[in-house]
C-alpha cells in the first residue's frame, strides 16, 4: 500500500498548490474550514488523472492503476522468504475517501480510504517452514482483496526556497485491513490444483 500513499501525497501536493498548479486542478487552502470536502472534490475531479499519472503538460506522476512493481522481497529469516517479480496491482484508482481529519497543530492529516476490490498478480518464488513442514513453490500468483480500509497519518512541513514555500512530507504511517483475501499460487504443494487455491 505504500505506492498508494505515494500517489496520495502527490495529489495533496497538487491540491495545495505548491508552486504553479496544473490547470485541471482547483487549489485547496490549508485555512479553508471545509478543507476535507475540498480535497475530496479535487480527488473526485481528477480520478482519471490519478490512474494515468498525467496531470497536464510537464506534470507527470506515477500512475496508480495499473501499478507495476518490478520486484519485491520479503525475508523473515530461514522460516519465510518470498521474492515477487513482475507484480501488477489493479483497482487502486477506485478508492473512496471515507474520512479526512486535519491536525493543524501537528501539520498533518489522518485519512481513511476504502478500496472495494484490489487485484494483484505476478510471479512468486517461495520458501517457507511451518514447524516440520517445508513449503516451496515458484510460478504465477494472483491475489484478490475485498473491502480494504487504509488509514494514513500524513505529516507535512513548509520548506523555503527561492523566496517561496514548498509543501514537503515526512514518512507516512500507514495501516490497513481487509474483509476477505483469496490467493492462488500455481505450483505450490507440488502443483496439486486442489491445494494451490488458498481461500479466505
UniProtKB/TrEMBL annotation:
**Alphabetic keyword roster:** Signal
Q: Name one GO cellular component term.
A: extracellular space
Kindly indicate whether the keyword Metal-binding belongs to this entry.
Answer: no
Q: Which Gene3D superfamilies match?
A: Haemolymph juvenile hormone binding protein (3.15.10.30)
For this protein, the record's SMART domains field holds: JHBP
Q: Which residues form the signal peptide?
A: 1-19
Reading the lineage from the top rank, the first entry is: Eukaryota
Kindly provide the name given to this protein in its UniProt entry. Protein takeout
Amino acid at each position: 500500500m505504500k505506492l498508494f500513499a505515494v500517489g496520495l501525497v502527490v495529489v495533496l501536493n497538487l491540491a495545495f498548490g505548491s508552486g504553479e498548479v496544473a490547470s485541471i486542478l482547483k487549489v485547496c487552502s490549508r485555512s479553508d474550514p471545509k478543507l476535507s470536502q475540498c480535497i475530496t472534490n479535487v480527488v473526485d475531479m481528477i480520478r482519471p488523472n490519478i490512474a494515468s499519472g498525467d496531470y497536464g503538460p510537464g506534470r507527470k506522476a506515477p500512475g496508480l492503476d495499473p501499478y507495476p512493481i518490478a520486484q519485491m522481497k520479503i525475508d523473515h529469516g530461514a522460516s519465510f522468504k518470498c521474492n515477487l517479480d513482475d507484480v501488477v496491482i489493479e483497482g487502486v484508482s477506485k478508492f473512496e475517501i471515507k474520512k479526512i481529519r486535519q491536525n493543524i497543530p501537528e501539520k498533518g492529516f489522518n485519512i481513511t480510504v476504502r478500496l472495494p476490490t484490489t487485484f494483484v498478480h505476478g510471479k512468486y518464488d517461495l520458501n517457507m517452514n511451518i514447524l516440520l513442514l517445508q513449503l516451496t513453490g515458484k510460478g504465477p500468483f494472483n491475489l484478490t482483496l475485498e473491502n480494504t480500509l487504509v488509514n494514513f497519518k500524513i505529516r507535512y512541513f513548509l520548506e523555503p526556497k527561492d523566496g517561496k514555500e514548498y509543501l514537503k512530507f515526512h514518512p507516512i504511517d500507514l495501516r490497513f485491513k481487509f474483509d476477505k483475501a483469496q490467493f492462488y499460487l500455481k505450483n505450490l504443494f507440488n502443483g496439486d490444483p486442489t491445494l494451490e487455491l488458498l481461500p479466505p
